[in-house]
Amino acid sequence: MEGWRPVWGRPGQVAALVALFLLLPAAGAAPAGRLEEARAARDAGDYRTAERLARAGAAASADPVWVLTLALVLADQGRSAEALAVLDAPRAEPLPERERLMAEGYAHLRGGDDFAALRAYGEAFLRDPDNAEARGAMAAILDRQRGPHGAARLDGTPAARAADQAAALTRWGPEVRPPAFARRFELTDRAIAAQDALLARLAADPAADQALVRRIRLDRMVALRDRARMAEVVAEAEDLARLGPLPPYALQAEAGARLSLRQPERALLLYEQLLAAEPDSIRAAYGRVFALVESARLGAAIGAADAIAARRPRFVASAGGPATAPDPEALYAAQLAAEVRLWSNLEAEGHARLRPLAEGAPANASLRVAMAGAAAACGWPRLAEAEAKIAASLDPEGLAPRIAVASAALARRRHARAAEAIAALGALAPENVQVRRLATEQRAATGWLLEVDGSLSVAEGGGASRVGDGHALRGRLSSPLLAGPLRLFAEAETSRATPPEGPVARKRIAAGLAFEGVDVRLRAHGAANLGAREGASAGASLDWSPDDRWSFALEGERFSRQTPLRALLYDITADAVTAAVRFRRDERFDVSARLGWLGFSDGNRRWWGVATLAARLLSVPHWDMTARAELWSSANSAPGGPHFSPARDASTTLGLLTQHVAWRRYERAFVHALDLHAGPYHQRGVGWDWVAGARYEHRWRFDPGGNWPMA
User: Fold this and answer.
1) CATH code (residue 351)
2) Confidence band, pLDDT 50/70/90 cuts, at residue 654
3) Inter-helix orientation angle 328-342/365-377, to 10°
4) Looking at the chain, which terminus has fewer C-beta neighbours within 10 angstroms, N or C?
């Protein structure tokens, strides 16, 4: 029925009635005046009069035009069920099929059932491919149902529909995962290209719809965010905001971009603005948690993550049925609440929360990646590596498992494997923040490394044996890795003390070779000693960790740096051998023991040993407090020499170490720590007394390779 479109507007209504007059059989036709009167009433919106006339006409005439007119008038009034009943009512002669389908489509359309309308119009179109009205109605429905590509195939591509097509590609970009990860931006790139072309086309049109131009630019913001072109997102957001407030989906894109660009405070404001407008937006709620973490507001981040997890139901309904389907967001919300604790100095609690989740969903790759992160945070590199490999086996193409595997390899000092994996990740996802951070950590672990340790000391008591006030400064510069796990290093050290005999200083310059293998580190060095006693030194050390909890160390040096400064005043040197063992259950419990031997050049032989137990008493964001107990004892074969060498002595001290992260900004941080300890001391032949000590330390971290402790 070419030229007939049953739409809500008056011209469409007139056209529908005229078409019915012209196309239906003339036999038995109703009086033209009455039909014209019904048409005029419908055109004027007087549906009650139009319905009365149509019913009268249908009762007086067998002409199907009256039945079709009545159905249209009923649909005009929103009475779609009655309209469909009129069309389906049995009659001696069926209604013309094309006109019946068109009227049925219109009735469904007015009743809000787009899919039934699409089916009716589609049947009419299949019967008559030249039916422009059916084609246009189908295209309009597809536009409304966010199917612009299908609408374009039916009815062309005007600018607004082209914008809808690009917006659809933008939506599909992050959701449609191509077989090859390298093609993940394929749809997003097509969307941006289409939006750029459309904006150029509209810019050349003086009569272009500026509201449409703004909508395209807003959609392009989202596509740019998905393409990780974050600086462009922020620039476009700032420009568009001058013309009016941004809609929520654009604010979401801007907030994500600012978070990626390390502007967490600005991102937090945007996420809170989004949640004020849309309290149920789960994406904005997640984004707010990440912004709080990166703003170092860790307590608030934990509370926000817990609130999300508490609000999520365990099961959700599907298609109006009972709530029997597990809510995937509930699992991720619980995972996020655990991971925030890992980032907030609550490693044990975070791991404890993640473990039952992973046990309940052992094939969930995301949870396995989180478990790898938890193990790394707890200081268990082998477990972290195992969990990362499980995640990679579950999702071989996933980016997060591959990052976890590379990170675990780097932590185990599998440098060649880590370098290969990180290079592959850099080629595959150069825009990814975690990939860039991992590459920075790899450069820090394998490149030049500068370590500086300094201290000032104030000592009281000790009588003739006291060492007095002093200072020490030590620096080590290590070269990048050379052949495999080898690297060169150079050290410089200066120390000074003020015993009763007068000030004494030592300077030491050393160079050596280090082997950094998987779970083992070897160092050998030679040194020149200057100051109170000159001479050459040589030494070696071994550190070995057979598993995630036990570690062993062995060190030996001729003319050792352990030689007391006071001994140097009397031209006495000492060779040293030290052995150590440590059991570290986790960050909350640590026990270690060290046993040492010093062979002095004056014939004295000293044995000493120390056992230390540390237990974390308190862990909260930015703060932790650890109790320490230490038992120390020594024995000298030739007591009474010019340096302090009692026949036997021992001490037991209890202490408290408090650490506070005063400031943190991504890789940069300032931590200060206070270590207080006191306890009884006994020396054979002298008796008991009390000893106490205090140490205040600053630790500055400027990048992954820079830690500067100063005490």
Assistant:
1) 1.25.40.10
2) very high
3) 10
4) C
